[in-house]
Structures are given as structure tokens and as C-alpha cells.
Design a protein that fits this description.
Blueprint lengths: L1 H8 L1 E9 L6 E9 L2 E5 L9 E4 L4 E3 L12 E6 L2 E6 L3 H8 L16
Length: 114
Amino acid sequence: MVDFSIALENQLSGNLLRKFKNSNGWQKLWVVFTNFSLFFYKSHQDDYPLASLPLLGYSVTIPSETENIHKDYVFKLHFKSHVYYFRSESQYTFERVDGGDSQCYQLKRVEPAS
């Protein structure tokens, strides 16, 4: 029970939009980040996640121009051949994910090549 209590104290949660792989569409999800994993829910009211993504080994970057993601507040999670694009709805939320004070930052921050 102590581990669960500690996990609740060290989590971020909120809405993010996930880019569909082969289209320009984005899916709005409630996302909880805790214990170096993302948990995806349809809404904040759901009891059980639709899916989870352990993030150890993933890098957090900003998409390059060549990736043709022409939206604000987008970040990319990638590990080997696995690539995920997420978009926040505000600069505040984006900075919580991308900023140096975030647990996300500790995964591995990589700047895109110019």
C-alpha cells in the first residue's frame, strides 16, 4: 500500500491528443503518467485504462519539420522503431511534459538534429 501512496504523489494527469499512425487524425485521451509509464483512459472518470505504455528507454523530442506534424505543443516519444506523437491543448500542459522539472524529462531528453 505504501508504494501505491508514493505513486499517487508522483504523477501527472490530464488530456493529451494521440496521433493516429496513418492519418492526420488525433484521439483525445485522459493520460496518467506515473512510475515511468503512461496509462490511457477514455476519460478521467474511467476506472481502468484502455492501454499502458512503459517508458523506460524512450526518448522525448520535438518532431522535426520533415515529420510533417504541423501543430503546436507536440512531442514525440520514441524507442527503436516505436514512435508516438502526442499533443497537448495548452502551452502550460506542454511545458509540464517537456520541461526540466518534469519526471518525463528524466526519461531521456534528446534535441532534434537541425
